[in-house]
Amino acid sequence: MDRLKLLSQNHQQEKDEGEGNGRNEGTLPKPFMGVKARRLASFRTAEKGDYLDLESNAFLSDILSKRGDQKLLFADRIIKLTGSGKIKQRAMMITDRAIYLADMDSCALRRRISLASIDRLCLSKLKDNFFALIIPTEYDCLMASTRKNEIVSILVEATKIKPSYEIGVVFSNRFEYRSAANATKIIQFEEVEGGIKTRFLNKTNQ
User: Fold this and answer.
1) DSSP label at residue 45
2) Is the overall model pTM greater than 0.90, yes or no?
3) Got the DSSP string for 89-108?
4) Taking the CA of residue 111 as centre, how many other CA atoms within 13 Å lie in the half-sphere pointing to its CB?
5) Cα–Cα distance between 125 and 141 in angstroms, integer?
6) Helix (H, G, I), strand (E, B), or coil: what is residue 111?
7) Ramachandran class of 83: left when φ > 0, alpha when ψ lies in -120 to 50, beta otherwise
8) What is the mean pLDDT of residues 129-147?
9) pLDDT per residue over 64-112, tens digit each?
10) pLDDT at 160
């Protein structure tokens, strides 16, 4: 099966036993209130945070220690889509100051994104795994993860105590992102039988 199709399919979960049990939207993280398309169960899964066991990974630990980051909030493997449309696996680490994207195969840090530089997160209203970091001073970053909800919650929580650069969250089934310094793409999501259809367009073609 095509890897992009796999990315856009909903992460399979058991039927949400919590639906209709009296829990209301007030129990959900604030940025997700009112988003009916997502199962409530996806917000009640146990969150481990460090899925890469950084204590046993010298390469990733050194990346943080060399830059003075001591508070790790999240670490996991994610999928990053490049400006040319290639799919790359990256190790994502989130601290209280920045996001780090590293290539574990070549042991190289590919990108550091300051939390203060992120204007907003863009997600669809459907059950896919995509999310985009919108960074006005740089090019944006489109990624996919089955732990998307956890990532978004962590980023919002990490910045809401810093009102000077609190990250916003925008839900739309069609949004733009800058895939490179001089290129903008549009990503569209459509719910179809069997999953989510994802389409990429160049803005210049619109």
Assistant:
1) S
2) no
3) EEEEEEESSEEEEEETTTTE
4) 18
5) 19
6) strand
7) alpha
8) 96
9) 999 999 899 999 999 999 988 899 999 999 999 999 999 999 999 999 9
10) 84
Query: How far apart are alpha carbons 185 and 178 in whole angstroms?
Result: 6
108: amino acid identity, one letter:
A
Q: State the pLDDT confidence band at 24, using cuts at 50, 70 and 90.
A: very low
DSSP state of 181: T
CA gap 174, 189 in Å, rounded: 6
Tell which residue, 131, 101, 130, 99, has the closest CA to residue 117. Answer: 99
Judged by DSSP in three states, 50 sits in strand
pLDDT for 45-62, tens place per residue? Answer: 445 799 999 999 999 999
Q: What is the largest CA-CA distance in the chain?
A: 49
Six-digit token string for 162: 């810093």
